[in-house]
Design goal:
The complex is a heterodimer of chains A (382) and B (269). Chain A is α/β, with parallel strands linked by helices. Chain A folds into two domains: 180 residues, Rossmann fold, CATH 3.40.50; 108 residues, Rossmann fold, CATH 3.40.50.920. Chain A has 14 helices and 16 strands. In chain A, strands 2, 3, 4, 5, 6, 7, 8 and 14 form an eight-stranded mixed sheet that branches. A five-stranded mixed sheet of chain A has the order 11-13-12-15-16, sandwiched between helices. Chain A has a two-stranded antiparallel sheet with strand order 1-9. In chain A, a hairpin with a 5-residue loop joins β5 and β6. In chain A, α3 runs parallel beside α5 and α11 packs across α14. The longest helix of chain A is centred in the middle third of the chain and has 18 residues. Chain B is α/β, with parallel strands linked by helices. Chain B has a single domain, classed as Rossmann fold. Chain B is globular. The relative contact order of chain B is 0.14. Classes of the chains: A alpha/beta (382), B alpha/beta (269). At the A-B interface, β2, α3, α5 and β10 of A face β2, α3, α5 and α11 of B. β10 of chain A pairs parallel with β2 of chain B.
């Protein structure tokens, strides 16, 4: 058997993985540094009788994929910060109406137009709280192309499992970097297909009545069951309702289906964690530099370890709480003014032992940047 | 001709005020669909936000009640992924042409096969009577208490310029014509716009001293005239009714499908 090995950009890896996962519909609007995703899908999707459409803006893009998801397609859109801001209302709709979809945000510097061609990881909180109202979200990331492939497939699987939008929070470095990736054979990675109702035509079908396990077997638009989909609070028929009991029940369902499954959704990697006394916590491209530092310091006998988070939301608090219990210091490495660091602080016994190592100037954080902060933490001066 | 089979009785009573024109439009839409004999499973109604957008909930088709202004973008996703479906988008004037103006012109430009029924009551009714892009110069609204200094769009001209291949206008007074136009628009292969002047006695007529629903509907009779009529030449202020545009243009889903077919034959790399 010959292995399918490619040397491609992260954005292309995302495309390969999305197609592997069963993507059939993409709508998007050009924006750096995510545009290659659209360009490659414009070539690839028509070849498999899928649909590619370039919309008039990012608002329309997310709306179009939601519409296409309702007819039974696996759908995706990709953008960067400014476009992700525009997608927030559609994101909220997909959460409320329980529409599976994958939204890629290849992060760049912000706010506003910011640093279009430079790296950043400053949309971590926006991924969770960008859209209004209480809600839960799944957001995932990766630091290498091989991981990115699997995480992208995971994102599609989770979107189907929980009938929810999943955000792939990539960054400019991962999106544009070229690296070797093994494309798995079909069937090598498990795929989750949409859960459909077994009800026959004419029965009193409740599209928004979850099963006992919280999953929602729904019918596709164009099929034998006709129902209403709305962004309003709705009952089990999908009809708008102001009933306080229904409103409360729906809110619990939408949040619990994700937050109560944080153990299932949490993806992370560990390096040298068994006896680590200084723990680095990182994600995305920053985790590459963090890992470099940890590997080098281990060679010198220093007890450094790394937790690389791949699921950022729901925040895997159990991982941080359990694995950092014996840490002397915790250093969160990220490229923003400190976002994930707050979540880490909230979930450890000694928040004063949690430090931030960051870069906010659009330059990829280097091992030297991390070593410089470690010197200070370890009391070895600047 | 019974339209009751198209109604979700569970959803009633509807939210519209007494004298509102939107129920007349709903009735005309259902009569058109009944006459065309399209299966309920092949009809998708996509709407945005506003009084008019509530139509989607009342009808027993696949219904998608979306975000303010975004109905055509959602509808584009539905139609592109299943071109065999008949997609109907009931919209209000603010929904279609203020917050949704960009989606409106781009759906028209693509000439994607769907029917936009723009229920033009010249006001934001649901929020209590703020001026819309169709309110018109000199009119009053809660956010134009002294008078409106915004000029209005001509929906038919805008649709034509944007590329819609079927554009028609009528009023809630001219119900037979309305039903015929909706039928034609649904049958038309391309982006169709049917503008319906629909009275809002509660939030537009009352504030602008136009009387009640009956007076407003009577004004539709006296203030409109068929396209190209002699009356229009004599009184240019009259609003024209009829089919403004009916042209054969390549339809978007068909064009996309042609690319797929071409690729399948391997004639294009």
């Amino acid at each position: 058997m010959t292995q399918n090995i490619k040397f491609i950009q992260g954005n292309e890896v995302c495309v390969e993985a999305a197609l592997y996962a069963g993507l059939t519909f993409y709508a998007g609007y050009p924006i750096t540094p995510s545009t290659e995703i659209a360009e490659h899908l414009a070539i690839r999707l028509p070849l498999i009788s899928g649909t590619f459409i370039q919309m008039e803006d990012e608002i329309a893009s997310i709306c179009a994929i939601i519409g296409a998801s309702l007819t039974g397609n696996k759908v995706m859109t990709a953008t960067s910060g400014p476009g992700f801001s525009l997608m927030q209302e559609g994101l909220g709709y997909a959460i409320m109406a329980e529409i599976p979809c994958v939204i890629v945000n290849v992060q760049r510097g912000g706010p506003s137009t910011g640093l279009p061609t430079n790296v950043s990881q400053s949309d971590v909180f926006q991924a969770q709280w960008g859209t209004h109202g209480d809600h839960a979200i799944i957001a995932m990331t990766a630091s290498s192309h091989q991981d990115l492939f699997e995480i992208t497939v995971d994102a599609f699987n989770m979107a189907e499992t929980y009938r929810t939008p999943v955000i792939l929070l990539l960054d400019e470095v991962i999106g544009h970097m070229r690296e070797r990736v093994f494309i798995p054979e079909p069937g090598e990675l498990p795929l989750v297909e949409r859960l459909k109702t077994a009800f026959k035509e004419g029965v009193d079908y409740h599209p928004y009545l979850p099963r006992e396990d919280g999953r929602l077997p729904m019918s596709d638009f164009g099929g034998i069951h006709r129902f209403n989909v709305t962004g309003l609070v709705h009952d089990m028929w999908g009809f708008p309702s102001n009933n306080p009991t229904i409103a409360k029940g729906l809110m619990h369902h939408l949040i619990d289906k994700i937050n109560n499954n944080v153990h299932e959704i949490a993806r992370y990697k560990e390096y040298h964690m068994d006896d680590a006394s200084i723990i680095l916590v990182s994600y995305g491209c920053s985790a590459r530099s963090a890992r470099h530092v940890v590997e080098n310091r281990r060679k010198r006998g220093e007890k450094l370890g790394l937790i690389e988070l791949q699921t950022l939301w729901p925040f895997p608090m159990h991982v941080i709480r359990n694995r950092c219990a014996n840490a002397r210091y915790i250093l969160v490495v990220e490229q923003n003014m400190g976002q994930l660091v707050h979540l880490v602080k909230m979930n450890v016994a000694r928040p004063d032992k949690v430090f931030l190592c960051n870069r906010i100037d659009g330059v990829f954080i280097s091992p030297t940047d991390i070593r410089n902060v470690l010197r200070v933490i370890q009391g070895r001066g600047v | 001709m019974s339209v009751k089979k198209f109604i979700r009785e569970r959803f009633f009573p509807h939210i519209w005020c007494q004298g509102c024109g939107h129920g007349i439009v709903l009735n005309a839409m259902l009569r058109a669909l009944s006459a065309l004999g399209i299966s309920k499973n092949e009809i998708v109604v996509v709407s945005g936000i506003g009084c008019s957008a509530r139509i989607s909930g009342y009808v027993d088709f696949h219904t998608l009640h979306t975000l303010h202004g975004r109905a055509l973008a959602f509808a584009t996703g539905v139609k592109m992924s299943l071109p065999g479906l008949n997609v109907i988008v009931p919209m209000g004037d603010g929904d279609a042409l203020a917050i949704g103006g960009n989606h409106f012109i781009h759906a028209a430009r693509r000439n994607i096969d769907m029917t936009a029924i723009v229920m033009n009551n010249r006001i934001y009714g649901m929020t209590g009577g703020q001026f819309s892009p169709l309110t018109g110069y000199g009119m009053k609204a809660t956010t134009a208490p002294y008078k409106n200094i915004d000029h209005d769009f001509d929906i038919a001209e805008l649709s034509r310029a944007a590329g819609a291949s079927y554009v028609a206008r009528t009023t809630t007074y001219h119900v037979q014509q309305l039903t015929e136009m909706i039928k034609e628009a649904i049958l038309h292969d391309g982006f169709s716009v049917v503008e319906v002047l629909s009275q809002c006695p509660t939030n537009f007529g009352r504030r602008n001293k136009m009387g009640g629903a009956v007076e407003m509907m009577e004004s539709y009779k006296s203030l409109t005239t068929p396209i190209g009529s002699k009356a229009k030449q004599e009184n240019p202020a009259l609003i024209e009714r009829g089919v403004f545009v009916q042209r054969e243009l390549p339809e978007y889903c068909s064009e996309y499908n042609a690319i797929i077919e071409k690729l399948k034959k391997g004639t294009e790399k």
